[in-house]
Amino acid sequence: MTVRDIFMKKIIDILLDWPKPYIFGSDLCHLLNKSPDSRYAIVKRALKEGLLLPLRRDLYLIRRKSSLVDTFEISSILYGPSYVSFESALSYHGWIPEAVRSTTCASTKRSKEFETSLGFFSYEHIPSTAFPLGVEQHQKRNVTLFIAHPWKALADMIYARKQTWTTLNDLSEDLRIDPEHFTDSDASFLADLSAHYPNNLVKRTLGTLRKSLPRQRDLS
């Protein structure tokens, strides 16, 4: 066995033992006990051998574990701080019937898009004051995912895309949301959401929709 073969076997063993389906180039370099200057050459070799797939600078998907990856988990690592929102969150919660081909997220950073071997990821900016409220933690395969509550996803749509709806019926028809989903909506939560967005359009639209919700759920 040549020195090259021994080195490649060591890389393969590291990748197979790695607890995640993705790895940073800096981590691989450290595990191989190589200097940071060697990172580019090491990653280039692993890419050439088909052991890794690029996601973004210094972040790679381990090909043999690609079936284990969750795009929602990757989304927060690819560009953060961020959480799953917009159509992806609405689809996850079953509010919209369509499967979403891209992963749509909200971030306090500037808007950005990534085309990767896992698919398309898009990030839209929201204000930091609105970032934490309405973001829920969901467990999947022992991984914590950060996903917007459906109303939080709608608030992000209003803020980032200037979307407006004057009635719940308009909202339902536009996004094909079953009106039954509105029955259990807590109007006080909408009030909290609108208070955290420094934007009159969000406040006005959520306020209008809030008034249309069943009164028995308005706890504010």
Structure description:
The strands form three sheets. Strands 4-5-7-6 form a four-stranded mixed beta sheet, with helices on both faces. Strands 1-3-2 form a three-stranded antiparallel beta sheet. A two-stranded antiparallel sheet has the order 8-9. Helix 2 crosses helix 3, helix 5 runs antiparallel to helix 6 and helix 9 (about 185-195) runs antiparallel to helix 10. About 30% of the residues are buried. It is of the alpha+beta class and about 220 residues long. The chain folds into two domains: about 5-70, Arc Repressor Mutant, subunit A (Orthogonal Bundle); about 70-215, no CATH class. Helices cover about 45% and strands about 20% of the residues. The longest helix has 15 residues, at about 5-15.
